[in-house]
Amino acid sequence: MPTCFLILSEEINELNSESINAIRDIVAKELTSGARYLDRHHISVRTMKSRREHMLGDIEIEIQAQFFVRRFWKRDERARRISDRVASDFHISCATWINMSIVGYARVTTDGRAFFSDRASGRPP
Predict the structure, then answer these.
(1) Alpha-carbon distance 25 to 38, whole Å?
(2) Helix or strand run (H / E) with residue 86
(3) What residue ranges do the domains of the chain occupy?
(4) Which of 1, 4, 24, 26 has the fewest Cβ atoms within 10 Å of its own Cβ atom?
(5) Maximum separation of any 2 CA atoms in the chain, in Å
(6) What are the tens digits of pLDDT across the range 96-119?
(7) Pairing state of beta strands 3-8 and 44-49?
(8) What is the pTM of this model?
């Protein structure tokens, strides 16, 4: 489950849910690989504010994602496509980083369904 840190300059007041979901869709599409299919529901987002004078774009996107070989060899191309789409769709400048590492994660729903980085078991932990 990739996590996106969206750092917003003062050029962007706030992002509404529709805009955040559009960015989640872009990131999911560009991080999907033969090893993992992603949609917006796989992308977690955190928003932060900064000053444009300290940034490389009006918005910066820092992505923490699981290491997969296909992602690794095309990480710069994937980051460029994310920046291109966000810049075009939102009419702002965008800088994107993709950080990959070996990670694990777990998510448990209120009804006891458990999801892990390698599979969705649907069983209580």
Answers:
(1) 9
(2) helix 75-90
(3) 3-116
(4) 1
(5) 49
(6) 999 999 877 787 889 988 887 665
(7) parallel
(8) 0.84
